[in-house]
Write a structure and sequence with these properties.
The structure is a single chain. The chain is mainly alpha-helical. The chain has a domain of 77 residues. It is built from three helices and no strands. The protein starts with 40 loop residues before the first helix and ends with a helix. Keywords: Coiled coil.
Length: 139
């Protein structure tokens, strides 16, 4: 509330104490010795093994693809042949369904009897066309 925004700084800096350091002793390194270029031999071997395994897996995947592509193509060709046969069979089914509906339609029974036999519907009146004679033509 009424506190100042900044605290005043002391004009005198406190003296820095320097304590004497004991001489450092060299202990044997717990990590493996590094080569001159900074890479440890274990790390190089591990990286080489990982690279070899990755190359082997990649070659296996490529070999599998080489075997799968021809079988995929033959399967695709068989699918096309089956599709053609299905289309032909569909057209035959449609033709046969049309015939079936025609033969078993109760409204077309009389017409089918006339087509298959020489019988004529008894209720049907035959129409006979004649050539007009000269007497009938003058009327």
């Amino acid at each position: 509330m009424n506190a100042p925004d900044r605290l005043p700084r002391p004009s005198v800096t406190p003296p820095v104490r320097v304590s004497p350091r004991p001489p450092s002793r060299r202990y044997p390194a717990s990590s493996p010795r590094l080569r001159r270029d900074g890479v440890s031999p274990g790390l190089a071997v591990e990286t080489g093994l990982q690279l070899a395994v990755n190359v082997t897996v990649s070659l296996g995947a490529i070999a599998a693809l080489v075997h799968l592509v021809p079988s995929y193509q033959t399967g695709y060709q068989e699918l096309e042949q089956l599709q053609e046969e299905v289309d032909m069979t569909r057209s035959q089914v449609q033709l046969l369904q049309g015939r079936f509906s025609r033969y078993f339609d109760p409204t077309q029974v009389n017409r089918l009897i006339e087509e298959e036999t020489q019988r004529v519907d008894p209720q049907r009146v035959p129409i006979v066309w004649r050539e007009p004679t000269s007497d009938e033509a003058s009327h």
